[in-house]
# Entry
Amino acid sequence: MKLFSKVKGCGEPVILIHGLFGSADNLSKLSRALSEHYEVHSLDARNHGRSPFSAEMNYALMAEDVHSYIKDNRLIRPKLIGHSMGGKIVMDVAATFPESVGCVIVADIAPVKYEPHHTKIFEGLRSLDLKALSSRSDADQKLSLFISEMPIRQFLLKNLYKNSAGEFDWRFNLNALFENYSNILAGVSTDKPCRKNILFIAGAASDYILPSHREKIKSMFPKAEFKKIVGATHWLHAEKPEIFNALCLGFLLSE
# Structure
């Protein structure tokens, strides 16, 4: 699958991958900061943004998508950064194709299976009759019956656009995400330890990377390092961009 990308800057390549329901634009602040030093490739994962839609979706396929992008664009050992679902993707790429990539940064996710926690989001999104929507604010009002947090609704509604027929539509493949949700929650595994230099950055107010996850992380990635951002939740890149960007840039430049 040929993934959509936005490329900025010049120098050694760095690949950025967003999380569930996201797109290449979600890490735009990081992209701008890194583009002063690197050639930054911000990707849309399959079933997101402007990348192709597919009924099939799992981490093995998404890792192969990224590996194909690396080969097609003749990138030499790009450094990888992924947030949430994107973090699992870059872990899988590093574990499966270690010879093709450089160091790795994982933002607020562990290589473990998670319990379902997007139920209300899926209920809200699937309840919307897109053809009957009158405006984006109309969609927001209807979503608020399921999702009380305005920032989350705003994040989701970034994906709402008008297609060539003048009707509202989603940039993501909602049906495929719903049908493959168990695959998105699944853990990442490897046949042997991946000895890439890898940094895990967690939000101190997030429960996505717990002390109980350290053993699994270290067994898969023996050279793993850990950082926490005080006052940040799972959306650490948006809440504390200066600190997050500085941690990422410092780690990349040290390699």
User: Anything to note?
Assistant: The radius of gyration is 18 Å. The beta strands are 5-8, 13-17, 39-43, 79-83, 104-107, 160-162, 168-170, 198-203, 224-229.
